[in-house]
Amino acid sequence: MALNTFKHGIHPNYHKELTAGKKTEKAALTKKVAIPLQQHLGAPCQPIVKKGDTVVEGQKIGDANTFVTSPVHSTINGKVKEIEKYPHPSGSKVMSIIIEGDGTQRQWDSRQIGIDIDKLSIEEIKTAIREAGIVGLGGAAFPTVVKLSPPKDKKIDSVILNGCECEPFLTSDHRLMIEWPEKILWGMKLIMKSLGVSSGYIGIEENKPDAIGALENVKRSIIPDLKIIPLETKYPQGAEKMLIKAILNRKVPVGKLPMDVGVVVQNVGTAKAVYDAVKYDKPLLERVVTVSGNGINEPKNLLVRIGTSFDEVVNQCGGIKGDGEKLVIMGGPMMGISQTNLEVPVIKGTSGITVLAGDLVRPAEYQPCIKCSRCVEVCPVNLMPYRLTDYARFNEPDKFRAWGGVSCIECGCCSWTCPSNRPLVQWLRVGKLRVREAEKGSSK
Questions:
Q1: In 258-282, which positions are buried (b, 16+ CB within 10 angstroms) versus exposed (e)?
Q2: For 153-187, how does the pLDDT look when each residue is reduced to its tens digit (9 = 90+)?
Q3: What mean pLDDT is predicted for residues 259-282?
Q4: 224 CB-near residues (< 8 Å, 6+ apart)
C-alpha cells in the first residue's frame, strides 16, 4: 500500500543510524551560558536584568512589549557577568546576557502542578505558553503563541504535529517521540484546546516505526481520536506545506500560510515544551540536540541548556575526530547554517550540531548549467530553479518574483541534485533578498 506523500523531493543518505538508537543523555551542568536576546523570528527582547544581578534558573531576563516576540530566561543559577554583543549561530553578533553559574540547579519535575486540562481556559493555556518563551523547535523558532492566535477570519479545523524529521543525521525528534510520547500527546491536547480544534494528526516518516508504536501505545488514554499517519520517507517531507499536502491533500497557495487552508502545524518538540510549561510552570530552558556526523567522536542525543557553547557540547561527545578540514553545521546538512566559531551558544532553534569530514566537505567547483532539468524534477514547490537563479544572479527581482521565486522554501533539493554542482539554493536566497530590497525601496 502506497504511503501518503507529496510530489517531487529527493532521497539523500540519511545517516540516522549514528544516533537513532541512542537514548537522550542529560548534558553536564554548564558553568556559563550566553542567552541571546534575539533567537527567534519577531522583535528582539530587551534585558530586564543588569550586570551584577543574581538570577535563578527559569527567571525571565528578557522580554518585549510586542505581539510577535518571545521572552528569554536564565537557564542556570548564577550572576549576570555581562550584557553585550556576543557571537550567534546566525553568523553575526547579537546582544546577549552572559551568566556565570554557581553550580546548583532546580528540580522542575518535583514542582508539578495538579492541573486539569479540561478546566483550563484557552487564555490560561496561551498565557502559560507565552510566558514560558515557547517557540517552534523544528528550527524556525516562530513564537508558538502567535501561531495559536490566528486572526478571527481564519477558521482553523486541524492541527498537525510534525514528527517527520527528514533532515539527514538528525534524530532529536525521533528520540523525543520514543522517550516522551505521553508529554507530546498532552502537549498536543493543549494545543488543540487552545485553537478549539477536534481534528488532530501526527505525521511521521515510516522509517521510525518505534516512534509510531510509542505514540500509538499511549494515544487511547489521552486523545483517542488522534490520527497517527505514517508517511513516505522522503526529503523535505517535514516542510509545512509538504506535510499538509501529504496528510490532508490541501495545497497552501503561493504567498499564503497554513492557516489560510485551516491548518496549524507544530513540531513534536514544541508540543512537549507546551506540556512542560503548563504542567510544571517550566520555561523553555533546554532542548534535545543531536550531535552527529562523521567528524564527531561519539555521536549522541543530548538534553542541552539553552546558552551552552557549541564547543562544550561537542566536547561532551568526545570532541572533533582527527585532523583535516571539518564543517560544523547548526542543524542538518540540507538546511543548516555553517559555523566558523564554536563559542556560539545553543539557541532555541538548535535541533542539531553536525560535524562533517573527509569527502563530505571536499570542495566542488561548479560548472555551467547543462539544462538537464533535474532541479525542476525534484523541486517540491514546482519551481524552475535554473531559470530563477539567473534572475537572482543578474539582479532582476521583477522577473524572479514573476516566476514564483518568493515561494522557494530553501530546502536545497535543487543544489543536491545538480550534476554541475551549482549552488542553486544559495542564489535563490539572494534572489529572495533582492525582491525584499526592491519592495522596501519602492515603499519609501
A1: bbebbbbbbbbbbbbbbbbbbbbbb
A2: 999 999 999 999 999 999 999 999 999 999 999 99
A3: 95
A4: none
In this structure, what DSSP letter does residue 137 have?
T
What are the CA-CA distances from residue 325 to residues 65, 168, 359, 366 (Å)? 45, 20, 10, 20
Grid cell of 352 as nine digits: 542539531
> What is each CA distance from 254 to 298, 389, 397, 405, in whole angstroms?
43, 19, 17, 10
> Is-contact 219 186, C-beta < 8 A?
no
Q: What is the value of pTM for the model shown?
A: 0.94
* Angstrom distance (rounded) from CA 361 to CA 383: 28
Residue with cell 533539493: 413
**Max intra-chain CA distance, the chain:** 64
Rounded to the nearest 5°, which phi and psi values hold at 217? Answer: -65, -25
Residue identified by cell 543510524 is 17
Q: Phi then psi for 3, rounded to 5 degrees?
A: -90, 155
Q: How many helices (H) and strands (E) does the chain have?
A: 13, 17
Q: Which ranges constitute the DSSP H helices of 83-166?
A: 122-131, 144-147
* Backbone φ, ψ for residue 67 (5° rounding): -70, -50
Residues 405 and 392: their CA atoms lie apart, in Å, by 9
What gap in Å lies between CA 24 and CA 302, rounded to an integer? Answer: 5
